[in-house]
Every structure is written in structure tokens, then in C-alpha cells.
Amino acid sequence: MLSFFVEERIAFGDRPVSQRRLAEEVLGKDAAFSPTPNAHVRIYLRRLRQRIAAYYVGAGASDPVVLSVTTGPYRLCVEPRSLARGGAAENGHHANGATKKVDRRQGKPIALVLTSELSAPGLDGDLKLLPALVPRALTQYLLGKDGLVAIGPVPRDQLSDPACESPVARTSAAEFLLEGTMSVGPYQADGKRSLEVVVRMHEIDTGKHVWSRTCTETVDVRDLVTTAEMVAARLAATILAANA
Strands 76-80 and 65-69: what pairing? Predict the structure, then answer.
């Protein structure tokens, strides 16, 4: 069940999960299952919260990031340990005026980063999927990395300008927003195209630009999933190096 919540968070951000979906997709109930009179899902959710709490008291006591499942609507909450301990955030939302702190582990900063879909208005055909596929693969790659944890990605239509001041960014547990642009060149003789991704990191509290990085690859756009994973791995290495 926890894996399901993590996958939902990666794929759809802060969108809540219904009891019916948990019943059908996690517990194997059929479509006729009704969660209103049946407490089956709620019992499993309570057990999950108990096991998560026990983990953070024991083996996970020094983990830099704390996961929890809200009591309803049901969604995964991701917080730095400093916020989870101090109560500065509740259900993933910062308290007004709270100062966000970055926890430390073995001398390295632990930063929560909210990723967004890339801006790429010039893409056509199947290529229009890449601006969403690359951040999704990137988030999965960075999730749990020592030094940086990414959450998201957030659809472009949920971000205003400037993006770091958007409500979806302000109410997240993240301290930074990663956004960027994507562009592709013409087809080459081997059927491949050049792809350039520029990513930018901003502090969510202040809107301050932290850094920008550019990744250029020659890719086979006929396999979008493989292309997205390859570009995300390259971007992840670049981002981790910049964050070091």
C-alpha cells in the first residue's frame, strides 16, 4: 500500500487517492466493493500508519525525509525531518511564517525539490509527451537519493508565472522548484534528433534563482520512454553535481 501511495505521488503529485481505488488496486477487491459500510480499507490504512510510525521510531530514526499518509483525503505526505519533528508543517503544508530548515546527514544537505513538467511549445506528434515523461523519470530517479529528494512532477497548467509563487508550489513540502525548457532539432540521416534540456532551480520561499544547467543529447525519439529515462539519468547526474 505504501508503494502504491509513493507511485501515485510521483505520477500525480498531491492528488488524493480514494478508498475505492485502494480497495480495487491494492487489496484486490472487485468493482462491487463499497467502502462506506465496509471498514476494510480504513483498517489497512490504520495498520500502515502504525507501521510507518514504528519504522521512524526505530530503523528510520535518522532518515532525512519522513513519509506519512494523511487521514483524509488520503494522500502521501513527504516532509524533511526538521519539519516533521517541529510541527512546522501539517499534511505537507507549511505553517504561515515558518522558517524551513534543511536537515543534514553525513554533512550533506537534504533538499526536497518539487519538479514541474518542462516547457516545450514547439514539439509535435508523439514528442509532445516528452515534457511530461522526462520529469516523471527524473523524479523516480532522484527519489531517495542522498542529498536530494524530488517530488512531483507538477503539470505546467498548475503553475503560474513566476512558477515558484504558484499555490501548488507554496503549499508543498519542498524548498526548491525545478523547472525548465526542452527543444529538439531536425531529424538527422539516422532518424535521430538533437535534444536540449535547460533546467533551473529556484528557492520557493524567496523566488531566488539558484542555478541553471543544460543537458544536450542526440536521441532516438521513436522510443519515447527510453529517451525520457536516458535524458532523466543525465539530468539527475547534472543536478546532483550542482547540489553537492
Answer: antiparallel
